[in-house]
Amino acid sequence: MDRKPLEGIKVLDFCWVAVGPMTTRYLAEYGATVIRVESRKRPETLRRAAPFKDGISGLNRSGYFASYNPNKYGITIDMGHARAKELVLRLVSWANLVTENFTPGTMERWGLGYQDLQAINPAIVMYSTSMLGRGGPMERQPGFGPVLSSLAGLTHITGWPDRDPVNPYGAYTDFIGPRFAVASILAALDYQRRTGKGLHLDMSQLETSLHFTAPFILDCSVNGREQGRRGNRDPGAAPHGAYPCRGEDRWIAIVCQTDEEWQALLELISPVDWDEDRRQQASTLVGRKTVEEDLDKMITDWTGDQDSQELMYTLQDAGVPAGVVNDCRDLFQDPQLVHREHFKFLDHAEIGPYPSDQSEFDLSKTPGSLDTPAPLLGEHTEYALKELVGLSEDEYRSFEDDGVLE
Amino acid sequence: MSNGAGAQELLLSPYRVLDLTGQGGLLCGKLLADLGADVIQVEPPGGSAARNIGPFYQDDVHPEKSLFWWSYAANKRSITLNLETADGRDLLKRLVKSAHFLIESFPPGYMDGLSLGYAGLEAINPELVMVSITPFGSDGPYAHWKAPDIVGMALGGFMYLTGDSDRPPLRVSIPHFHLHGAAAGAAGAMIAHTHRALTGEGQHVDVSCQQAVAKTLAHAPQSWDLEGVILKRMGVFRQTSGDSIVRTCWPCKDGYINYVLQGGSSGVAASTRTLLAWMDEEGLGDKYLNDVNWEELGYGQVRSEIMEKGVAPLIRFFATHTRQELVAASVERRILLFPVATQQDILDHPQLKARDYFQQLHHPELDTTVNYPGLFVKDRHGERISLRRRPPLIGEHNREIYQDELGLTLEQVTALKESGAI
């Protein structure tokens, strides 16, 4: 089999929940050896999160956990044990990279802060990420992605102007961070290779996420303007929205950014009651902006009894940007996502086949691949410690007998 | 001076990036630039169309004053180059010889049509990592479709899950579709770079923004596959599984806050207990909520019955406090609660201030200094990641790059300028 691009990178991974495991999933997908440390005494949050196979909960049955952790080796260590530090430092001397997303101070409390790691392995790269970063008055403020979106200014700009704001779906900031994290980690490892030096990366998920609202923040900073939520409106296009289609909760997004796109849409709709004055008024973007509500209503009347899929092809063929609003069942059948093999089904011992999403980029010569399902709790403790890290049988037994591997 | 950085080497100092992207890809090069790469934005003569995107500095609609451009072009240098001319393409090929990365976001096939597709560039520089950021990837049934932001957010599955249940699905009121893809481009570029650093072999990285958005849906796809549940948008609530919903967004005395009433792992249940105790202290406690066994509930496992009975007491309590009171108490008591922040709140945020997040860049031609969102990651014991250049003016570095670095003569550069190649 061809060499994967990250083969040889050894990761000691303390990440849990979403933002961290998504980051190390990319590394594992492209060939890094990732040993994920978990605890039997305090199983990680996602192992107890729905969806579960057949709706029955169990530490090895969560599809949420399984989707973020393929290709990784799972080991268990009782971090509260007196010998845990001794074992972890063995792992640190094996690794190029240590990753963690605990509340700041947690690794230090275990005697495993960056300085401690560096004393064992001077070139180690440590990647730490937390809600609000290290230092500052709120470094230990608890939180998680679903509510961080609000502090990052994303909730304030999502929703209808006449209603309460809503959160972008899910733990949205958790899905912004990982790509920045992968680029940063690999830049640090490049620096490590070239110079023999290590470093400690400190990522505040708040600070990273602000790059997704940067133009609005600059607008406030230099112009003093506060931007709010706009529904689906956009200052540079009209019409611009999601319109109902035939069936239950079926929608299509339609946009006219140019006059040509508008003319093509108008030709398809061919409204019988439009006189020359109306056509003239709507022939420019500035004109369309003044009658945007009327346009939305006309389009809604036109799309309402049409099939969303057929309409999307009709519109795109006519040069009008349009896309169906896919729900999560649709995603599995979306022809483009199927073509790109977005979902990879892995066969898990307790869950059976389940989908994990593959990376959103294809590398032409050294593709990544998801090959093995997420580990059962502690599945690889013995294998990883002996075969990957090189503990002797006696050393391994000693940790096991002392109850460190719980 | 070609580099404003201090003496310390940056993480990606040795590497040069040619950034041909427009609106849809600028963030990719910005990310590599912050990590220390020398990123040259290659703009068409007259400047990138991304400079036409508002808002604008002092509301002056001008290509040097686009705040969108400023957000995603800071730290880069700029040259102008017309790919539609043979001279322009020749120049690009000369630049490719010594570049490590080339990033582009043209429609699929455009670069191939100019003989500048990966095959053409590989022949010039086999070590080059070429990154293409497109809505759907470079081939497949949608590859040539138009996909402005809302179309991509719809097809990626995001919108179905966001917004009020009685209204159309929603996007965020600022485009995110291409930003997700552009950030992914940087991750893919660095994976390919790692391989190149070890083997000398370059390659093509083909990014799909649609897939990037489909990866933001948490466990929603798995919920369909494993439990047959199509999760729905529920406004200020979030559906976490078939029979579980949690409210995330709440009004308070002077605005909105985010708080998730739920149990699960120790910290989450403890946060809930702490809030309920605080409500008791103020005489607004609720016996039903106090009696729920939060410690035994799984993450996100709040039955709708609990929500139905729990919302009213919480709304009553939050209504008696301002955002500031709620946030201050939450920091002190360790409750999982954040304000729904406005842009001004963000600029004033004490944690961001304490971490020196915002950084000033001087714009001499405007005789002003601008407060920029700072680094997305910090180098805790060094300065090997940095924000060091204000966004470039159109073709600001033509002379520096064409004459000083490529060694073209003044006569050659003048001829290229007059012919419209640069």
Task: Give the tags.
heterodimer; A: 406 residues; alpha/beta; Rossmann fold; formyl-coa transferase, domain 3; six-stranded parallel beta sheet; three-stranded antiparallel beta sheet; 18 helices; 12 strands; elongated; B: 422 residues; 2 domains; 15 strands
Question: How does this structure look, described?
Answer:
The complex is a heterodimer of chains A (406) and B (422). With 406 residues, chain A is an alpha/beta fold. Chain A folds into two domains: 10-212 and 344-401, 3-Layer(aba) Sandwich (Rossmann fold), CATH 3.40.50; 240-331, formyl-coa transferase, domain 3. Chain A is built from 18 helices and twelve strands. In chain A, the strands form three sheets. Chain A has a six-stranded parallel β-sheet, sandwiched between helices. In chain A, strands 7-8-9 form a three-stranded antiparallel β-sheet, covered by helices on one side. Chain A has a two-stranded antiparallel ribbon with strand order 10-11. In chain A, strand 2, helix 2 and strand 3 (73-76) form a beta-alpha-beta unit. Chain A is elongated, with a radius of gyration of 26 Å. Chain B is of the alpha/beta class and 422 residues long. Chain B has two domains: 16-215 and 353-418, 3-Layer(aba) Sandwich (Rossmann fold); 233-340, formyl-coa transferase, domain 3, CATH 3.30.1540. Chain B is 37% helix and 15% strand. Chain B contains 17 helices and 15 strands. Chain B has helices spanning 26-34, 67-73, 86-97, 110-113, 118-124, 149-155, 177-199, 209-214, 220-227, 266-281, 287-291, 304-318, 323-333, 343-347, 350-354, 398-405, 410-418; strands at 16-19, 38-43, 77-80, 101-104, 129-134, 203-208, 233-234, 237-241, 244-247, 249-252, 255-259, 337-339, 359-363, 368-372, 378-379. In chain B, the strands form four sheets. Chain B has a six-stranded parallel β-sheet with strand order 3-2-1-4-5-6, with helices on both faces. A three-stranded antiparallel β-sheet of chain B has the order 7-8-9. In chain B, strands 10-11-12 form a three-stranded antiparallel β-sheet, with helices on one face. Chains A and B meet through helix 2, helix 6, helix 7, strand 6 and helix 8 of A and helix 1, helix 2, helix 6, helix 7 and strand 6 of B. Strand 6 of chain A pairs antiparallel with strand 15 (378-379) of chain B, so a sheet runs across the interface.
